[in-house]
Design a protein that fits this description.
alpha+beta; ABC transporter permease subunit; 49% helix; Ig-like_fold; MetI-like fold; membrane; elongated; transmembrane helix; five-stranded antiparallel sheet; cell membrane
Length: 428
């Protein structure tokens, strides 16, 4: 059309063609050839390397995880990006909101992996995720301060099913019930604990004390008796159980471990419920075999939801406002406007974001390499990481090349879909 000679066109395209051949075409051809060779790279083994991909459990796990990544990560990131983009049109500080959501994109995958390795730390004192989770759990179901407490030698308490402890004999009004326990180190007693002291009796009530029947030092203290150096079990629940097994009265011990039950407890047995000895809730094992892949996907979404939001917000800015207003005038509510007007008009942008993220997750490597600990890295394995391990750790270049070819085959349909979509957009 411009009269330019073909030789001149080729000359100008030559640098790009050379780079394309050196950085794309040659590596693809090299990987394809080596995928049919053995470990040494000298002998032809046919499809053995590809057969290995579908018989080795580790590689099958990587393949399964890749499918989970492709199904979940792009979809969740795109949906969140769409929600954020729509919300930013309705909040006062839209620019600041977009900046905060997009900011993780400025962090490298390596830094993000290190951050989330700390976020998912099992210890609630260190890991933010478990600190929040434990806080929510303890709001509704408080953990016991005495998970290791248990009756000692010659104790009047005997174990009951479910982890509770029951007195051997019924208690009587006007008598003091002694409930000695051991198993909690003195320095692990909760705040607010007071020294135990003998309890006075009350003719019309059942009184008693639950305390730590242990005194440091050889021969110190007397077993089964309250000593001045011993501590009471504060906040422990005590129940009076009748002959039919029903609870007739209950109370909670004071700071020194003392308690008082009404006359209804006369003739009943005392029970320390299992809730007194419940182990402290330590949160979720985010990086264990069950949750490691969703946890790593969560870190990816944290980074890329901002990318999706920015692209979708740009597309949303081009949506004709008169269409939205016309729908509202016709009686459509906001959900109907969003579902029937906004989303269909944004379909081309959503397709771009979804396809871009799908290609991106197929080659995910950094987060899976950094976040999971060694004990669960096999459970979080993906094809890109397995390619690296096969090539450099296991010294199997043939299998690594086969994995690279399989990854390429996964990407090709997505690329063809994108090309067809671009051509369709061009014809419009």
């Amino acid at each position: 059309m411009t009269g330019t000679r073909k030789s001149l066109v080729v000359l100008f395209l030559l640098p790009a063609l050379v780079l394309l051949g050196a950085l794309v075409v040659y590596p693809i051809g090299y990987s394809l050839v080596h995928s049919f060779l053995d470990r040494s790279g000298n002998s032809f083994v046919g499809l053995d390397n590809y057969r290995e991909l579908f018989t080795d459990d580790t590689i099958l796990t990587a393949l399964k995880n890749n499918l989970i990544w492709v199904a979940l990560a792009p979809t969740v990131a795109t949906v969140l990006g769409l929600i954020f983009a729509v919300l930013t049109e309705r909040v006062r500080w839209a620019t600041a909101f977009k900046l905060v959501i997009f900011m993780p994109m400025a962090i490298s995958m390596l830094a993000s992996g290190i951050i989330f390795r700390l976020v998912y730390e099992q210890d609630p004192e260190k890991g933010v995720a478990n600190a929040v989770w434990v806080g929510v759990h303890d709001t509704f179901q408080e953990s016991s301060a005495f998970p290791k407490a248990h009756p000692g030698r010659d104790s009047p308490l005997v174990p009951e099913k479910g982890g509770a402890f029951l007195t051997k004999e019924p208690v009587r009004a006007g008598q003091s019930a002694l409930l000695p326990l051991v198993g909690v180190a003195p320095d692990e007693m909760p705040d607010g604990t007071e020294p135990a002291k003998a309890v006075s009796t009350d003719p019309g009530k059942v009184t008693g004390i639950a305390w730590q029947d242990f005194t440091r030092g050889k021969g110190a203290g007397k077993l089964g008796a309250v000593d001045t150096t011993e501590s009471g079990y504060s906040g422990m629940k005590v129940e009076a159980v009748g002959a039919d097994g029903k609870v007739v009265a209950s109370t909670t011990t004071a700071g020194d471990g003392s308690f008082t039950l009404p006359k209804e407890a006369d003739g009943a047995k005392l029970r320390l419920p299992a809730s007194n000895f419940r182990e402290a809730y330590n949160g979720v094992d985010w990086l264990g075999p069950s949750f490691v892949t969703p946890a790593v996907i969560g870190s990816y979404v944290w980074m890329w939801a901002g990318f999706a939001m920015v692209l979708i917000a740009a597309g949303l800015a081009g949506v004709p406002r008169e269409l939205l207003e016309a729908a509202r005038v016709d009686g459509a509510n906001e959900w109907q406007v969003f579902r029937r007007i906004t989303v269909p008009l944004l379909a081309p942008v959503l397709a771009v974001v979804l396809v871009t993220l799908m290609i991106n997750v197929l080659k995910i490597f950094d987060l899976v390499f950094i976040i999971p600990p060694g004990s669960s890295q096999d459970d979080a394995n993906v094809l890109a990481l397995q390619l690296y391990r096969s090539a450099f750790s296991d010294q199997q270049p043939g299998i690594a090349s086969a994995i690279a070819v399989v990854l390429l085959l996964f990407v090709v349909p997505v690329m063809l879909f994108n090309i067809r979509r671009l051509k369709r957009e061009g014809r419009r």
